[in-house]
Design a protein that fits this description.
Helix content is 37%, strand content 23%. The chain contains ten helices and 15 strands.
Length: 334
């Protein structure tokens, strides 16, 4: 599969090598509006100057490709995707799918009309621990989950390629990983949320870097989420700390390791072995994208499916703004 990558600075740098190393993909062109980022990516990839562009339309017209990898800022995701679909290309885009529900829906509709694949790189779904925890829940061995607690705490300072002025930076850029995991692990869809976001007095962000939310999912499942990007205390891993309470056991994620604590022997703590292999994170997301295109099927994290995860983020923001619970279906339907 020949791929044009749009956006090669900042986080986009991490995709370049993965595309070039994957046996089924070839990086045929790169695009970035920043000439310095473009020059650095050209040096890293060895691409000829004739295959390096500052405008995606120019690249799409000059170089024949099967797909576009969209690693641009969320505010221009829709522009890049629509241009790619117009030229019959598939699209793998970074999360979030878009900076608004309307633009996300436009991308999904454009992919449908063009009969092309749109996948969002929700790469946390492909972590070994996430696959393992989902299998434990799907097996029914410990009974259905009743309540889940998720805590994420980091002290993050953006590099110059990212903006600390982003509105609701935690919820938009990071929490969507955790929201998407809630859906993936449980196989249930969210119904409503009551949430608050805020900015501590020591925060270096201009907007709220902290959030707390109570989600209600199908079947009465409750999920409590707490996240911060300006913690003064102990930090979690990027995946966070998870506690899933079932009738027969508690399943925990601690330091990216899965533990099972039996309900009738709470003093016992057994660690679950995780699957090996190199296909995790971005690599696994790229592999899923390639397989979905080849097999002409919808990928696991398709744009259509990911609108529900995006709606969770916007519902949290709306609930915080209004001080009222928000139904996820209401956000999806707008």
């Amino acid at each position: 599969m020949n791929i044009i990558q749009v956006g090669v600075g900042g986080f986009g740098q991490t995709w370049l090598g993965r595309i070039q190393r994957h046996p089924d993909t070839s990086l045929v062109a790169i695009v970035d509006t920043d000439p310095h980022a473009l020059a650095a990516a050209r040096a890293q990839t060895g691409l000829a100057p004739s295959h390096c562009f500052q405008d995606c339309d120019d690249a799409f017209d000059a170089v024949r490709a099967d797909a576009a990898l969209n690693a641009t800022p969320p505010c221009v995701h829709h522009q890049v995707a629509l241009a790619a679909f117009e030229r019959g290309m598939h699209v793998l885009t970074e999360k979030p799918i878009a900076d608004s529900m309307e633009r996300g829906r436009r991308m999904v509709e454009a992919a449908r009309e063009a009969r092309r694949t749109l996948m969002v790189s929700q790469n946390y779904r492909f972590r070994p621990w996430a696959r393992t925890m989902r299998q434990l829940l799907q097996s029914g061995r410990f009974g259905p989950p009743d309540n889940i607690s998720v805590r994420f705490a980091r002290s993050l300072r953006f590099d110059p390629a990212l903006s600390p002025r982003m509105a609701h930076p935690l919820v938009r850029d990071m929490s969507i990983h955790h929201f998407d995991l809630m859906r993936a692990l449980t196989g249930r869809e969210p119904l409503s949320v009551c949430a608050r976001t805020w900015k501590p007095q020591w925060s270096w962000f201009e907007e709220d870097p902290c959030a707390a939310a109570l989600f209600e999912f199908e079947g009465g499942l409750k999920v409590v989420y707490e996240g911060t990007w300006v913690t003064r205390g102990r930090q979690t891993t990027w995946d966070g700390y998870w506690s899933i309470e079932c009738p027969e056991a508690v399943i925990e994620l601690r330091a990216d390791r899965v533990h099972v604590i039996p309900a009738d022997h709470p003093g016992e703590d057994s660690e679950v072995a995780l699957p090996g292999g190199s296909g995790t994170g971005q690599t696994a997301a790229l592999e899923e994208f390639c397989r979905a295109v080849l097999e002409e099927r919808e990928p696991e994290t398709s744009g259509r499916d990911n609108l529900r995860s995006l709606a969770m983020s916007f519902a949290v923001m709306e609930s915080s703004r209004t001080g009222r619970p928000v139904e996820i279906a209401h956000v999806l339907g707008r």
